[in-house]
Design brief:
eight-stranded mixed sheet; alpha+beta; Rossmann fold; Lipocalin; about 30% helix
């Protein structure tokens, strides 16, 4: 689900290590708060002026640095747009620039060690295998219209080789401005999932979200319900294709897509099945309070501060969810945060920043949405999977609610998968900071489970 950006963290004061520094030009790598991998490239122009570029793959951030200064044994720069900066000295023993990352009044140690240009390119063995082998399917660029919104959605339609018509699925993304690959932390989740399903004899349609990639429309103004209308347009497209068995079309939704798939199924009895991957089962405001708390704990927030944050977020999100109109909800949330500032729970002048982060059409609709009533009306077969180590949509909180909502559907299966995170990777803890560094894009056993269930269902 929509996870608030793990905001590039910040800095602790630094020990110095004099000595003659290594030439700063080239590629460097470090980790902020042992959480975010950062990559720096420094170059010296012919006229002697230094330039630098910072990349944070986990946040899909690439930006030029400001006010870069390099001397014999010191280096510093600012990121003015992020209210962040870095100052360090060369440590000859560590062979690294050892210093302090600071941001928003906080700080944490950061050391930069020499690396190369390829270090930023992570190992993705599943995607590399797909690129290397001869595909057992054909892929084509397609587009289709969501007539009510006048948006044209672009995607990739891949069909198994052999005699059709084939069962087919629409893949529906999680939250965020994702394209047809569903690229999260340099993992192309839908490329891996589509390839596996295609090789098992299932046709797949995956597409760029409205306003993303080659799709038209305005992403920032859309809610989950708008994205559901786009998914319905995708189903209509599949029904128009001769390669597809129109009686065996289903939907596979990940995260927010797991909210969208039941919405479509409840309105479309002709949809054959639904697969919900890491899907919310509780009201959005309750999920976000838990998601924010788990993320903060993973970053090392002390329990006392965590309890205060829970209280603040609970008040903020409840206020936003309590009003049907966004402006009224924003006003109510602002009042709640002003009260927190008055009683000293929040520093003066900081409450409105919290309000603005959630005062968007998407968040407002999500915080108010109750998945249960929709799931109770779904009569199609449903497969629900969630990773035991999912920090974004915690299994313990959501699977119980989903089981209750689907208890009268005899064709529903709900499973918790041990050791997997929100992306269905085998994960050490499940924290989102691990996504980039894990080589596995999608656990093979989960791919097989999804495919086997679909094929058994459509038989």
């Amino acid at each position: 689900m929509k996870s608030l950006p793990a905001s590039l963290l910040a800095a602790f004061l630094m020990s110095a290590g004099p000595a003659q520094a290594e030439d700063a030009a080239g590629h460097w790598k470090g980790r902020i708060a042992n959480s975010l991998s950062v990559f720096l490239q420094f170059d010296k122009a012919a006229e002697g002026r230094w330039e630098g570029t910072l990349s944070v793959p986990q946040q899909r951030l690439v930006t030029k640095v400001d006010q870069l200064a390099v001397s014999e044994d010191q280096i510093s720069f600012r990121l003015l747009a992020l209210n962040a900066g870095f100052t360090a000295r060369w440590n000859d023993e560590a062979k690294a620039w050892v210093g302090t990352w600071s941001q928003g009044g906080q700080s944490t140690p950061l050391s930069l060690a020499r690396t190369d240009a390829d270090a930023r390119k992570p190992k993705r063995p599943q995607e590399e295998a797909i690129a290397a082998r001869q595909p057992a399917y054909t892929s084509s660029e397609v587009s289709f219209d969501n007539a009510p919104s006048q948006d044209r959605l672009a995607g990739t339609f891949s069909v198994p080789q052999g005699k059709g018509p084939f069962p087919a699925v629409v893949l529906v993304h999680g939250s965020g401005p994702l394209d047809r690959t569903a690229n999260v932390a340099e993992h192309k989740l839908f490329v891996v999932l589509a390839d596996y399903l295609n090789r098992q004899g299932i046709a797949v349609l995956r597409y760029d979200k409205r306003g993303v990639g080659k799709s038209t429309g305005v992403y920032k103004d859309a809610s989950t319900f708008d994205f559901a209308a786009d998914a319905e347009a995708a189903v209509r497209f599949l029904r128009s294709r001769a390669e597809v068995d129109t009686r065996r079309i289903g939907m596979v939704g990940h995260s927010e897509g797991g909210l969208i798939a039941p919405l479509v199924a409840a309105r479309d009895p002709g949809l054959a099945f639904v697969v919900m991957l890491a899907a919310p089962g509780v009201r959005g405001e309750l999920l976000m309070v838990e998601q924010l708390a788990l993320g903060a704990r993973a970053q090392g927030m002390p329990e006392e501060m965590l309890a205060r944050e829970r209280t603040l977020n609970r008040a903020l999100l409840a206020a936003l969810a309590s009003e049907p109109r966004l402006q009224a909800a924003t006003d109510k949330a602002r009042q709640a945060m002003e009260e927190a500032e008055r009683n000293g729970t929040l520093p003066a002048g900081t409450g409105m920043r919290r309000v603005q982060a959630f005062s968007t059409p998407w968040f407002h609709a999500f915080l108010r949405h109750e998945p249960g009533p929709v799931l109770q009306t779904v009569r199609q077969p449903v497969l629900v999977l969630n990773g035991e180590r999912d920090f974004q949509v915690p299994a313990a909180m959501n699977l119980g609610a989903i089981r209750t909502a689907l208890k009268d559907n005899p064709r529903a299966a709900v499973k918790e998968l041990p050791g997997l995170n929100h992306l269905f990777q085998t994960a050490p803890t499940g924290a989102s900071s691990e996504y980039f560094d894990i080589a596995e894009s999608f656990a093979p056993a989960t791919l097989a489970l999804v495919s086997d269930w679909i094929l058994e269902t459509v038989r």
